[in-house]
Amino acid sequence: MKRKFPASSPPTLLGHIHTPEDLRKLSKTDLPRVADELRAFIIEAVSTQGGHFGASLGVVELTVALHFVFNTPFDRLVWDVGHQAYGHKILTGRRDLFHTNRSHGGLSGFPKRAESEYDAFGVGHASTSISAGLGMSIAARTKNELDRQVVVVIGDGALGGGMAFEALNHAGSTNANILVIVNDNGMSIDPNVGALKEYLTKISASHTFNALRSETSNILRKLSQYGPNVEGLALQLERSIKGTLFRQSNFFESLNFRYFGPIDGHDVLGLEQVLRDLRDIPGPKILHCITKKGKGYKFSEEGDSTVWHSPGLFDKKTGEIRKASSAMPAPPKYQEVFGSTLLELAKHNERIMAVTPAMLSGSSLGDMMRAMPDRTFDVGIAEQHAVTFSAGLASEGYIPFCNIYSTFMQRAYDQVIHDIALQNLRVVLCLDRAGLVGTDGATHHGAYDIAFFRAIPNMIVSAPMDEVDLRNLMYTAQSDRIGGPFALRYPRGAGTIIDWQKPFEYIEVGTGRRLREGKDIAILSLGTVGNMVANAAAALSREGIEAAHYDLRFAKPLDERMLHEVFARFSYVITIEDGSIVGGVGSGILEFMAEHEYHATVVRLGIPDRFIEHGSVDELQSECGYDLDSFLVAARSLARAAKTAKEQRKTSPE
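Predicted structure:
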């Protein structure tokens, strides 16, 4: 059952906008005020409840202009990634529920088709919008819906993703009626990298282009006055642009897109006029908008854009980001342990390289980039390339640690199989944010990596129980005793150990460990959920239930010697993992049991066979049935079954 939330009190103009139809009833001259109120609403909401901040502030004017000009939801509006879609949600009937954004049972932090008809396409991963928009445009043409407009908004970071290039290449050959708006702020989460970024920078900084902008704007403003002559004026504009453009650079034009811009993405009245005019020009079009991430809030404009991408709670008056205070020292985040340990290892092993697709700060590789810039590579939003680039490094004797969030590793599955595993190349695949990640929701949970990596020959799949284990598994992965691909998964956030910088120890691949003796039931855990199991086992002991606890450490290869011990001693077993039950390590243990003809009752706990929405990690683990309380219920039930079976064996005749 969905939670009910009280409505909030909206500002004056914004308070009368329940749908874009209400927005379109306003005068054009009201748009700057709407933009100001929308920006203030976002600042107030995010400062008190958290969420993605800088990206949404950067497209406030664009969002207002788009919904004013286009007939949404009939006209399709697709946002790439979705970090910037807060203003869109607020204008499309979700203002009074926006304070539930990213909370359990509340609004999703990303556009989602099931949530609103205005969310034309569900997003969360980068570079998908042009492909989706092109499909919608072709579908509209096929259905003879010739008046339907399709607009996609993609950032300059996502535009560098391979899928976006593929979509541009296809769209240019179709003459589809699609408008691609490039929201150029020079940022993804971290600053953008790559040749396309340099290309866009040259365009926006070009004196020739800036001189051309006034001519472009003048012609565009005339278009709406001439009715039947629109096409002729469009051709005049095209010749004017091409006459200068082709002497400068012609990337978009070479793909048969008409290029317009660059224009000021914060001039809502100028945007409204340009969008209205472009609406009447058929075929594939690019509108290049220059924006500033965090626009309109002093502290985000002047501060670190990476920090203000998703700052958490903050004081909107002072810009002070609120952090949990504690008199006691706190354990580090797993990301910090990873970054520190990799730099430590790289200082002693010159073959180690670091690779990440646009997640330099999130993966805590900033220190290594500063210390070893020639051995640290941010390849942009390009997971497939990151994996095969790492394979190329490995083929020449280097040891790349390729750090990709688990949810984004899904995008490079073929490259892992074809380019790494098939050739048995030594790449360390570091799966950050494995398991349930919380408020980012279904598009970002790292639920499937255990299952999809277990199926790949030559692959080692490991998961640390704590920070010390993470260090030791990293040390193991770079050892010369490892001859092929090594996957290492770990969760988002803090661990449990404060004093974690212990001397390195090599962990024999495929070996687990028995952490606690017991005689009633056996618990097999993988990864950091083992810490919860350890606490639960102690609680069960006080209730008279003696549960043996085994930490698997490896999902592949499994510790078969340890499993033989488990099934020789126990007829009642619980497996628990922070990953999909279907195909996960619990499934691997059932396969082992069947292959060796053991007979036991096995209860598997983990992420069930459905998509899990957003909420805190604790809330979601409870929903999935593998939080502490759920685990204790399962363990007690299994222990009762074990006790009953034991008593029946005692009383049954020989």
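Summary: The chain has a mean pLDDT of 89.
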